[in-house]
Write a structure and sequence with these properties.
Number of strands of chain A: 2
CATH architecture of the largest domain in chain B: Orthogonal Bundle
CATH superfamily of one domain in chain A: MetI-like
Number of strands of chain B: 0
CATH class of one domain in chain A: Mainly Alpha
Largest interface: A-B, 112 and 107 residues
CATH class of the largest domain in chain B: Mainly Alpha
Largest sheet of chain A: 2 strands, antiparallel
Helix content of chain A: 55-70%
Structural class of chain A: mainly alpha
Distance between the termini of chain B: 44 Å
Order of helices and strands of chain A: HEEHHHHHHHHHHHH
Order of helices and strands of chain B: HHHHHHHHHHHHHH
Number of helices of chain B: 14
Oligomer: heterodimer
Shape of chain B: globular
Strand order of the largest sheet of chain A: 1-2
Strand content of chain B: under 5%
Strand content of chain A: under 5%
Radius of gyration of chain A: 24 Å
Number of domains of chain B: 2
Structural class of chain B: mainly alpha
CATH superfamily of the largest domain in chain B: MetI-like
CATH topology of one domain in chain A: MetI-like fold
CATH architecture of one domain in chain A: Orthogonal Bundle
Chain lengths: 312, 288
């Protein structure tokens, strides 16, 4: 399972003999090691989740005590707030455009690099670099200028600045995500390199051509990695914030076309001080992400192939 | 084409390979264009920024950098840089210490509820930050810690970034158990064997953790946006945000000069540690 010269790739655990050590003492020591994590998990994760669930049923502005309003935040969100629905459709559109494009590009480049003899390391690093830089405000500002009136894209296509046109602004944001395809690409590449060469040799002996090898060997063997990338990138895409903020100067414009969910949540909670409403929004996001992940996991049974099932 | 002229005469040219290389180079040019544009624009006179497609400035306008170094809102860039470094450095220290402690317990020690707690830890990797954001803000607000760096650094000392706990657990599981057995026979308790035996061997995973933490914290915008108000507490990222509101073209040059300065640490980290970064990312996707 280890790849050549990879310090960070974990090697499989050696099976240990059952412990004969004094259990009591170890147990106490374990909790000492765990104590920072336990404190963080309770005070900064579990407690806040419970509190935000409570707040989602209240009217709260940070200064006055929370006032119980029952389900009103939720009913208002779903039935009376067109901007809320706008933020939902905007985010879904963004996820549906950005994630498949990004993963497709990542897969194509990984396949191109897989059998490369020379320059593989160079390309891998160079394509990966945007994944580190892309989340920064600096690059978001560059994107804003490139897709603005008189920017490079305007000059090349004559389409005007995308970020000023409601139908196009979100696409500019999505392209920034696609630009960062390097992280899933590196993961694909690592996955591709773990496919045993014998499988391809056996397929070739059986008369399978390149395409057949791809469909019958590469795709099933890579499906767990594809699944991992899909889940990870989808969850991240649901939470996109910085580029939408930068492109629209924090307003989600033009005409709310870049008003992604987290931007509207920020606007309700931290600009308009409707913390109860924002908490309700956060819980809906949590439930939606959980549901999407669950659906992905459920469908994965039919298309993800685990060669080493029961192996660990 | 140089490929053709340098090829050994008897070998036929692999046109497939050449095509792949050409494709990759073309893709690379498109990918790197925004970075080249950023660097070029940071050195352009104000009137050339959006006037033409020409990437090269007519002359190098170093005054953009001079203006950028004067800072924003009367706060010097050294102050902004120092603030960014302080937050990123604190986060690195916190993550490395707290995540390796928790990881050791999960990877090597036995305790009640280990299975469920490990599953819970994994689940928190998927947890959207926004679900806990508002109450965390309220807690820090009640403690009077809003507009300080505590909300940005303290959580890292409590191992809240479970991704890194998982990364280090995976790595520690690969280390041979015999090492600790030997240490135990020599009289080392769990603390000594963690500190003396396991931790030094975990260094690659710790370095990966440190680098990713630094870059993610350096790039972070949302948390800094909600917690910091005073311009003299701002980071480079927040200072750049001030430029988002000021859309006048004359500020373009200095704004992108500052953007270059803000990206510089990441670029340097990338050049110095690219192997760790790429391998770290690769290993995260594998069922190790």
């Amino acid at each position: 399972m280890t790849t050549t010269q990879t310090p960070a790739v974990p090697v499989p655990a050696t099976t240990a003999p059952p412990g004969k050590r004094p259990k009591r003492q170890r147990e106490g020591a374990a909790w000492v090691f765990l104590s920072p994590w336990v404190l963080g998990a309770t005070v900064l994760t579990l407690l806040p989740m419970a509190v935000s669930l409570y707040l989602s049923f209240t009217d709260y502005d940070l200064f006055n005590a929370p006032r119980w309003v029952g389900l009103r935040n939720y009913t208002q969100m779903f039935t009376e707030d067109p901007r809320y629905w706008r933020s939902v459709t905007t985010t879904l559109t963004y996820v549906v455009i950005a994630v498949p494009l990004q993963l497709a590009l990542a897969l194509v480049v990984a396949l191109a690099l897989k059998n490369m003899r020379r320059g593989k390391g160079f390309y891998r690093s160079a394509f990966y670099a945007p994944s580190l830089l892309g989340a920064s405000m600096s690059i978001a500002l560059v994107w804003r200028a490139l897709f603005n009136d008189g920017g490079t894209v305007d000059h090349l296509t004559g389409s005007g600045g995308w970020i000023n046109k409601p139908g196009w602004a979100l696409l500019a944001v999505a392209l920034l995500t696609v630009w960062q395809f390097g992280a899933p690409m590196v993961i694909f590449l690592a996955g591709l390199q773990q496919i045993p060469a014998e499988l391809y040799e056996a397929a070739a002996v059986d008369g399978a051509g390149k395409w057949r090898q791809f469909v019958s060997v590469t795709v099933p063997m890579l499906s767990p990695v594809l699944f991992f990338n899909l889940v990870l990138q989808t969850i991240q895409a649901f939470q996109v914030f910085t580029p939408a903020f930068a492109v629209s100067a924090g307003k989600g414009g033009p005409a709310d076309s870049t008003l992604v969910y987290t931007l509207y949540l920020y606007d309700r909670g931290f600009v308009a001080s409707h913390m109860g409403y924002a908490s309700a929004m956060a819980w809906v996001l949590l439930i939606v992400i959980g549901a999407v992940t669950a659906v992905l996991f459920r469908t994965s049974r039919s298309w993800v192939f685990y060669a080493s099932e029961g192996d660990r | 084409m140089t490929t053709a002229s340098t090829a050994v005469p008897r070998k036929p040219i692999r046109w497939g390979r050449v095509a792949v290389h050409l494709g990759c180079l073309a893709a690379l040019l498109v990918m790197l264009y925004p970075l080249a544009w950023l660097l070029a624009t940071s050195l352009k006179p104000a009137n050339e920024v959006i006037a033409s497609l020409n990437l090269l400035p007519s002359h190098l306008e170093w005054s953009n950098y001079k203006t950028a170094f004067e800072g924003v809102n009367d706060v010097s860039i050294w102050r902004l840089l120092g603030n960014s470094l302080l937050i990123a450095g604190g986060a690195v220290l916190g993550n490395v210490i707290s995540c390796s402690l928790a990881a050791y317990a999960f990877a090597r020690l036995r305790f009640r509820m280990r299975g469920p707690l490990f599953a819970f830890m994994i689940a928190t990797i998927m947890l959207p930050h926004h679900a806990v954001l508002i109450p965390q803000y309220i807690i820090f607000n009640k403690l009077g810690l809003v507009n300080t760096y505590w909300p940005l650094i303290l959580p890292k000392f409590l191992a809240t970034e479970a991704f890194f706990v998982f990364l280090i657990v995976q790595f520690m599981r690969g280390l041979p158990r015999e090492l600790e057995e030997a240490a135990r026979i020599d009289g080392c308790g769990p603390f000594r064997s963690f500190y003396k035996v396991i931790l030094p061997l975990t260094r690659p995973a710790l370095i990966t953790t440190a680098i990713f933490t630094f870059i993610w914290t350096w790039n972070d915008f949302f948390t800094q946006l909600i917690y910091l108000f005073d311009p003299d507490k701002f980071t480079l990222t927040l200072a750049l945000r001030s430029f988002v509101d000021a859309s006048s073209q004359s500020a373009f040059g200095p704004m992108f000069a500052m953007s270059v300065i803000a990206l510089l640490p990441i670029v340097l980290f990338f050049l110095a540690f690219q192997r760790f970064l790429v391998e770290g990312m690769a290993s995260s996707g594998l069922k190790g």
